C-alpha cells in the first residue's frame, strides 16, 4: 500500500500539469480531437506498453495487459468535453477559447485517469487480466459519445467499468457513492404551440399561444403532484419559454417550450412522456391550437452494481483512508 501511495504522490504534479493544459484548451462535444490527440500522445509515453485505439477521432481507448497471468478485463472511464460558457475565473490557466470552458470538471477527470494509467503501468506485473482506459467524448450532449463507443464495441469483454465525477459538495479527500441508483435518468423535450397571431388589442381574433403555453406549463406540474406516487416522483421542469419578437402589442403565432424530465425509476421514465403529450394535446385542442412534442434520445438511470460498489468501498478504505468513503443516503 505504501508503494502505491508513493507512486500516486509522484504523479500528482503531472496530473496538475495535464489538467491545467486541458483546462486552457477546452473542446466542445464532438470537437475533442485536439484533447484526444494530447491524451494519446501522453499515453504513448507511459512506462509500460499500451494498446492504443482511436475508435473515433474524438476519443481514445488504451488497454494495459497485466503481467500476473490471465484474468478479467476492468475498465476505467473519463469524459473530455467542455461547455459553451465564457470563463471569468481570472486563473492563470483560464480557457484560451472565447465562449468555451471546462466548467464541469472533465479536465480533472481526464487528468486523473491519465494519472491512474501511469500508476497502474508501474505495477502491471501485479495485475491479472487487462485494464481498459476509456477517454470518452461528448458526455454533455444527447446522443452521447458513450452510446457511440458502446455501439463500436468498447465494452466488449469488459467485466466491470468504473467512473467518477468531481463534486464540490464532497470534502476534499473523500469519495462518495451508493449502491443501486445514483443519478436520475434524463429525457429532454421540445414543445411548440401553434396559434394565430394578431394585434394585442384584439385578442378575440387570435389564438394566443402565450396563454396556451402558460397553461401547459402549469398543467404539466400536476403530473408530479397528482399522477405519480411520492416515493417515485420525478422532476419535470420547463426551462425555456420563447415567444414573440419583443413587441408590446403583437400576439405571436407560436411559442416554443423546452424542458427536462429526471427520474429515478425506469417505469416512471417510460410513463411520463405519454402524460406530457396528453396534457399538451388536450390544452392545445381546448383553445383551437396545434402542437408538436419532440423528445430527444433519453439517458437511463445510473445504477451502481452491488459487486462493483463493494469493490470501490473496499479500495477507497484501504488505499485512501479508513474514513475516506462516504455512503450517500439518497441518489
TrEMBL record:
GO molecular function terms listed in the Swiss-Prot or TrEMBL record: hydrolase activity; metal ion binding
UniProt keywords, alphabetically: Hydrolase, Manganese, Metal-binding
Binding site for Mn(2+): 104, 106, 140, 165
Membrane-spanning segments: none
Domain Peptidase M20 dimerisation: 189-283
InterPro entries, per the entry: Amidohydrolase (IPR017439), Bact_exopeptidase_dim_dom (IPR036264), Peptidase_M20 (IPR002933), Peptidase_M20_dimer (IPR011650)
Cofactor: binding details: The Mn(2+) ion enhances activity.
Presence of keyword Protease: no
NCBIfam families xref list: amidohydrolases (TIGR01891)
Family designation: Belongs to the peptidase M20 family.
Protein name: Putative aminoacylase, putative,N-acyl-L-amino acid amidohydrolase
Organism: Trypanosoma theileri
Lineage summary: Eukaryota, Discoba, Euglenozoa, Kinetoplastea, Metakinetoplastina
